[in-house]
Write a structure and sequence with these properties.
Layout lengths: L2 H17 L3 H5 L2 E9 L3 E3 L2 H11 L2 E13 L4 E12 L5 E14 L2 E9 L1 H6 L7
Organism: Stutzerimonas azotifigens
Protein name: Nuclear transport factor 2 family protein
Pfam family, one: SnoaL_2
Length: 132
């Protein structure tokens, strides 16, 4: 397996563990000094914090994975994952089609950076945008 495909596999395995959710397993795909930035510029120290944050924002949430794009940057590989989120808000109402884009940097077999963007904040501010 070449360098780029292994980076996509690492990100894919991380996302699968994250959606279980199994933050302990998800952490095995990340460098101990990973930098995670969520929507709104929120810094997350580890996958456990991501799980806790999502637990407050959603009753539950999963990703419908779209495609993975990657590029070699010399000393690391950048992997983009896009798709949609689906699940339930804390009030029990369901949602789907919530776009997300995640950007990862993979170096030496570990995720060293993760940046997350999605439509959730906009949908919470203006519920009419949530069109399942």
């Amino acid at each position: 397996m070449n360098h780029e495909n292994s980076a996509v596999e690492i990100v894919s395995n991380f996302l699968a563990a994250s959606m279980t959710p199994d933050p302990v397993k998800a952490a095995t795909f990340m460098s101990p000094d990973v930098r995670i930035t969520f929507t709104g510029g929120r810094l997350m120290p580890d996958p456990q914090t991501i799980t806790a944050f999502n637990g407050g924002r959603y009753a539950w949430v999963k990703k419908q994975l779209g495609q993975f794009d990657w590029m070699d940057r010399g000393d690391h590989t950048v992997v983009y994952s896009n798709g949609t989120l689906y699940g339930e808000w804390p009030d029990g109402s369901s949602f789907s089609g919530n776009r997300y884009m995640d950007r990862f940097e993979v170096r030496d077999g570990k995720i060293v950076r993760m940046d997350v963007w999605n439509d959730s904040a906009e949908w919470l501010l203006e519920p009419a945008l949530n069109r399942p």
